[in-house]
Amino acid sequence: MGLQKLEETLDGWYKKAPQMPESTRKSLAGAFWWIALVLGILQLWGAWALWRLAHYLDPINRAADYVNQYYGYNVVDNSLNFFYYSAILIIVVDAAILLLAAPALKAWKKIGWTLLFYSLLLNVVYGVARMFSDVGGGFGNVLWALVTAAIAGYFLFQVRSFFVKAGGVDLKMDSSSGNKPKTK
């Protein structure tokens, strides 16, 4: 199933869900660019903080493992591994997607909405990958990723019509309103 087909399928599902009032959806659509910008910056900061913290704690962890081995205790290798580096990479890629989406969302372009959709899918993939992680992995991560994706998807698909040329919305900018689309 292609991403376009997945988007259309999910749009059909979310259209069956209770719909927000038009004014609320329009306000939410107008705020999405701020939300994407703030989340993108926070994710970059979080990736950097996670990188620094893990590299600070890794030598301490190795020293503790050495002491435990010296006294005859079995030690599980908890050093930085593939899942740590892939998590950092996914966070950085997701932050880049959100930061790229912000200006397009501000201009009410469909590509901005599509980038948010890709970010949502990336977070689901990340949740599934976390299931196999040695640290904090398990089924709970997949379940949490699916629940948060369903909730985020609800809000995302509520505003989709404002970014797609449909429903009487012209995606050209109205100079008097600044960042809101003019209606036909």
Account of the 3D structure:
- With 184 residues, this protein is mostly helical.
- It has one domain.
- The chain has 6 helices and 2 strands.
- A two-stranded antiparallel sheet has the order 1-2.
- Helix 4 runs antiparallel to helix 5.
- The longest helix is centred in the first third of the chain and has 49 residues.
- The chain is elongated.
- About 7% of the residues have low confidence.
Can you give keywords for this protein?
2 strands, single chain, 184 residues, two-stranded antiparallel sheet, elongated
**How much beta, percentage-wise?**
under 5%
Summarize the amount of helix as a percent range: over 70%
Extended strand count: 2
User: Spatial order of the strands in the main sheet?
Assistant: 1-2
How many whole angstroms does the radius of gyration measure? Answer: 21 Å
Low-confidence stretches: 166-177
Q: Any idea what the shape is? A: elongated
The arrangement of helices and strands along the chain is: HHHHHHEE
| Main sheet specs | 2 strands, antiparallel
Distance between the termini: 34 Å
Number of helices: 6
Number of domains: 1
Based on secondary structure, the structural category is mainly alpha
Mean pLDDT metric: 83
Summarize the SSE layout with pairings.
Blueprint: H1 3-15, H2 22-70, H3 82-106, H4 110-130, H5 139-158, H6 160-163, E1 169-173, E2 181-183
Helix pairs in contact: 1-5, 2-3, 3-4, 4-5
